[in-house]
Design a protein that fits this description.
Layout: E1 3-6, E2 11-12, E3 15-18, H1 20-29, E4 37-42, E5 46-55, E6 60-68, E7 77-83, H2 89-99, E8 104-108, H3 119-139, E9 147-148, H4 154-161, E10 166-170, H5 172-176, H6 182-189, E11 195-200, H7 208-216, E12 220-222, H8 234-248
Parallel strand pairs: 1-4, 7-8, 7-11, 8-9, 10-11, 10-12
Antiparallel strand pairs: 2-3, 3-6, 4-5, 5-6
Catalytic activity: uridine(1498) in 16S rRNA + S-adenosyl-L-methionine = N(3)-methyluridine(1498) in 16S rRNA + S-adenosyl-L-homocysteine + H(+)
GO cellular component, one term: cytoplasm
GO molecular function: rRNA (uridine-N3-)-methyltransferase activity
């Protein structure tokens, strides 16, 4: 069943008004008709099973049939920090990371990041990434849309880290040295509801100075197995490991 995220103001008593791109998707792409049902995730309220009552020239009107009790989110809040990669790799990270349960994404201007985002470009990039996150959240039946932040520097990242419970760095030098315990031990001891911030480097990895700064701020470096993973693969590995440990065991 198709899922849409709507704001509180779109809920009028027991009627949900859907406009914009979601209206277009319902009316013109799926060509849905009155009587068909959809799922609407209302911010701060929950998921409603709704039945389409009317499709006008600009709005879809759907009435709430029932509120559902869904448990779709990871038991911990995971923020992925990605050193700005080349091409569309960050789009891939956001899309697949959303499917795997990430709560938010923070692009990171690392020393070895080849691409640079200026103010205007950054706004357009973030807008597109946020759209990708929304579509991936709908596809994977999430109950929240992960937030995509504007790029930060290493110093801004250190400041942000103060509000998280657990701080990790995925560092390939640890993998080369066969370090395999940090991630496992962290997940074994983590509590439900905790917040986790995990930093990943760009294609060239994190510099030693960046690792030193982060470790001084309380981050623990961890390896991700004996193989060296690409910048777009490593976040997905960590999210899958978290899901396995906390949801499937």
């Amino acid at each position: 069943m198709q899922r849409y995220f709507v704001s509180n103001k779109q809920l009028k008593d027991t009627m949900i008004e859907i406009d914009g791109n979601d209206y277009h998707h319902i009316a013109n792409v799926l060509r849905m008709n009155p009587g068909e049902q959809i799922l609407c995730v209302v911010e701060q309220k929950g998921t409603a099973l709704a039945e389409i009552e009317e499709i006008s020239n600009e709005l879809v009107f759907a009435s709430v049939v029932e509120w559902l009790n869904e448990e779709k989110e990871l038991p911990v809040s995971v923020t992925i920090v990605s050193g700005l990669p080349k091409g569309d790799k960050l789009e891939y990270i956001v899309q697949k990371g959303t499917e795997l349960g990430a709560a938010s994404f923070i692009p990171f201007t690392a020393e070895r990041s080849i691409v640079k985002w200026d103010g205007k470009k950054a706004n357009k990039k973030i807008e597109r990434l946020q759209k990708i996150a929304k579509e991936a959240a709908e596809q994977s039946h999430r109950t929240i849309v992960p937030n995509v932040e504007t790029p930060v520097t290493i110093r801004q990242l250190v400041d942000l880290a103060k509000s998280y419970d657990t701080l990790l760095i995925a560092y390939e030098e640890e993998a080369k040295q066969n370090e395999r315990a940090t991630l496992s031990k962290t997940l074994l001891n983590i509590e439900k509801g905790a917040s986790i911030l995990v930093v990943f480097g760009p294609e060239g990895g994190l510099s030693q100075s960046e690792v030193n700064i982060l470790q001084e701020a309380g981050f623990k470096a961890c390896g991700l197995g004996p193989r060296i993973l690409r910048t777009e693969t490593a976040p997905l590995y960590v999210l899958a490991a978290i899901s396995y440990q906390l949801e499937l065991n």
